[in-house]
């Protein structure tokens, strides 16, 4: 399929403090590898990828990587507009990046559409797997924050590939689900059944828990996503 052939176009923003790994997550998902040279994002950068949804046709994702430094805030906040989804990232080995999530969330909601779908991601799980003492934010803390603020949630690692694919593609599926629901509030039986099928595939309301460490699709994928 050509990259130009798609049914939906969704703009996604990556948001969070500097050095939490936003660029690495994007590079791993788009290119399948990490950046050869680690460098801070200046302003905003973006990449695209076209994928088939589990339900709903094909989507072209425009994924915008925003700078985490304070001096770029006025530039990056302007790019929140017309975003269908956001991936809000913190570093599980740096408590401050988690504490700053609240201000990032407020900024997203002030500058984006009211129906934006947000995925909270605790990145750099690989560091905690090597040495558990490096973990400064527990899984339960992340899940609790997500639950309280009606966000989806997952931990991930751009280095080990843990959940990278699932984070982006489940967010895209949820955007489709929400829009289908809104567009068919007074729906035919057929469209209602389509919506129900989409919900069954993503199988989550507020929090997604992903455990596929190989980051490969399998028939039990829906069962790996649980509402915590």
Automatic annotation (TrEMBL):
InterPro entries: P-loop_NTPase, Rab_GTPases_membrane_traffic, Small_GTP-bd, Small_GTPase
A GO term, aspect molecular function: GTPase activity
SUPFAM superfamilies named in the record: P-loop containing nucleoside triphosphate hydrolases
Pfam families: Ras
Family of this protein: Belongs to the small GTPase superfamily. Rab family.
PANTHER family, sorted: DRAB11-RELATED (PTHR47979)
Identification of the protein by name: Rab family, other
Organism: Plasmodium vinckei petteri
């Amino acid at each position: 399929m050509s990259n130009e052939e798609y049914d939906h176009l969704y703009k996604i923003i990556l948001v969070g403090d500097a050095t939490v790994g936003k660029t690495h997550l994007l590079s791993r998902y788009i290119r399948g590898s990490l950046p050869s040279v680690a460098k801070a994002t200046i302003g905003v950068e973006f990449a695209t990828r076209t994928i088939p949804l589990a339900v709903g046709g094909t989507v072209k994702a425009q994924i915008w990587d925003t700078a985490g430094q304070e001096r770029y805030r006025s530039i990056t906040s302007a790019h929140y507009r017309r975003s269908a989804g956001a991936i809000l990232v913190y570093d599980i080995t740096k408590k401050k990046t988690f504490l700053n999530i609240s201000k990032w969330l407020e900024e997203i909601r002030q500058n984006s559409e009211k129906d934006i779908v947000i995925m909270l991601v605790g990145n750099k799980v690989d560091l905690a797997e090597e040495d558990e003492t490096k973990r400064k934010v527990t899984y339960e803390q992340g899940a609790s924050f997500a639950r309280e603020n009606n966000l989806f949630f997952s931990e991930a690692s751009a280095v080990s590939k843990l959940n990278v694919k699932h984070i982006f593609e489940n967010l895209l599926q949820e955007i489709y689900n929400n829009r289908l629901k809104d567009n068919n509030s007074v729906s035919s039986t057929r469209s209602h059944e389509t919506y129900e099928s989409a919900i069954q595939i993503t199988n989550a309301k507020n929090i997604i828990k992903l455990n596929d460490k190989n980051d490969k699709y399998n028939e039990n994928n829906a069962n790996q996503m649980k509402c915590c």
